# Entry
Amino acid sequence: MLELKASVRETTGKKTKNLRKENIIPAVVYGHGLKSLSVQVLLSDFEKAFKQSGESSLMNLKVEGQADRKVLVHAIQYHPLTDKVEHIDFYQVKEGEKIIVEVGLEFIGTSKAVKDFSGILVHELDKIEVECLPKDLIRSIEVDLSKLTELNDIIRVGDLDVPENIKILSDIESSVATVRAHNIKEEEEESPASVSEGEGEEEEKKEGDPSASTEQ
# Structure
């Protein structure tokens, strides 16, 4: 399990901007039936750990002077312009208590429908919601694209291979990935030449039609 160092945070409110200037990120740890705790972590440490864990892997949060806490990254606030991390919410899990999280989908393999029939691969989902015990949590679920052998084939949530100790909460009928045919529409437009020819034929009919004559 990945480890992330933290310390108890005394700075709160608008003063936290001074922490960010020093690349220290304010955060909070909370959980079901637990008292929330304000902490702070180094930006570099968090980015390194989060790159490996993502939102669906447990971290061992080592808070200075306290017992270690097993946490999930529940939410991250980013600066709207710089996209820099501004605040982190850690959710502390309890051993033996089930948790609900979103697990990312990892697409593997090659679709025959794409390779042989020039189909277009469409990813409908990139994560699904599951429920499990903390010890059974997995970082990602594989989606085997080789199962898409024909155009319009679909892999649904219910087709995913997940361990028995993990319960899928997302709609099992939802599409995860599909292969669609190229949608090419050929619009037939009347060319200027054909228009001219049509007008010429109409004029010839008028000239040859006695009823069209204006002679008295």
In short: Confidence is low (pLDDT under 50) at residues 186-191, 194-206, 210-216. The chain has four helices and 13 strands. Helices lie at 16-21, 43-53, 112-117, 192-208.
